Amino acid sequence: MKHNVILVVLDGLNHEVARHAMGHLQAYVGAGRAALYKLQCELPALSRPLYECILTGVRPIDSGIVHNQVSRLSNQRSLFHYAREAGLSTAAAAYHWVSELYNRSPFNAPQDRHTANPELPIQYGHFYWSDHYPDSHLFADAEDLRLRHQPNLLLVHPMNIDDAGHKHGLDSSQYRNSARSADIILADYLQGWLDAGYQVLVTADHGMNNDRSHNGLLAEEREVPLFVLGDAFSLDPAAAPKQTELCGTVCQLLGAPHDKPFCRELLK
Fold first, then answer.
1. Signal sequence: where (predicted)?
2. CATH classification at residue 184
C-alpha cells in the first residue's frame, strides 16, 4: 500500500534530550501510537554530510559530502528523485543546503528561496539560510506547502535546536528548551498530518556536545532519535533501524521503486 510521508529532521537533536524533553511526541509513545528508537548517526557527525546520508542512504565517505563546505549538487539518487520518478510530488521546507544538494547549486536566494518547478527533484520548496530562522516560521512554511500542494513526500527541517547547541552547548537550558519548543510547535500540526493520512518520521542528523559543536565519536554527538507515527509502522520495540536505512524505508512507505537498504522490522 502506498502512503504519503512527512519526514521531520530536527537539526542537532541529541537522543537523550529528545527522550526527556519531547513531551508531546512521548505522549504518543505512551499511548501506544508511536515508537521511539535510538539511531547512531554516520560519521562525520556534521550537517550537510548527514542530510545527504538521510536523504540518499549513502554514508558521507561514500557520497563525497564529507564536510559542510562541500557545496555542490549530490551525485546520488535521493528520496526526492525516487518519489518523482514514481510519479509522486515532493516538497521541502528546509535549510538552503538541501536545495543545493538536490535542486540547484550554489543557492541563489531570490531564485531558489521559493520553488515551484515540477522538473526539479524538490518540486515545491521554502528554503532559508539563517540558523536562527524561527522554527515557528519553518513549520508554518511546511504546512503552507502541504495545504497548497498536497505533496506525497514533505521534508520539514528546522534549525533552532542546533543553533542553541552551538551557542550554549548540550548541557544548557537554552538547548533543552529549544527542543521543548520544537515539540510544542510540532503539537500544532502532528495530529492533523496523521488525520490526513501521512506517515510521520521525526529524527535528527546529529547530536551536540558540551563544547558547543559536533563532529566526533562521543555518544551525545552521534545518538539521535527516531520517532515514527502512523498506521504503516509496526512499532516493534525490537526493530533496530539505521540512519542509512531511512531513505529506503521512506521509499517503501511511498511505494516508490528503489535500490536502497531499508528496515523491514519498522514496517507492518
1. none
2. 3.40.720.10
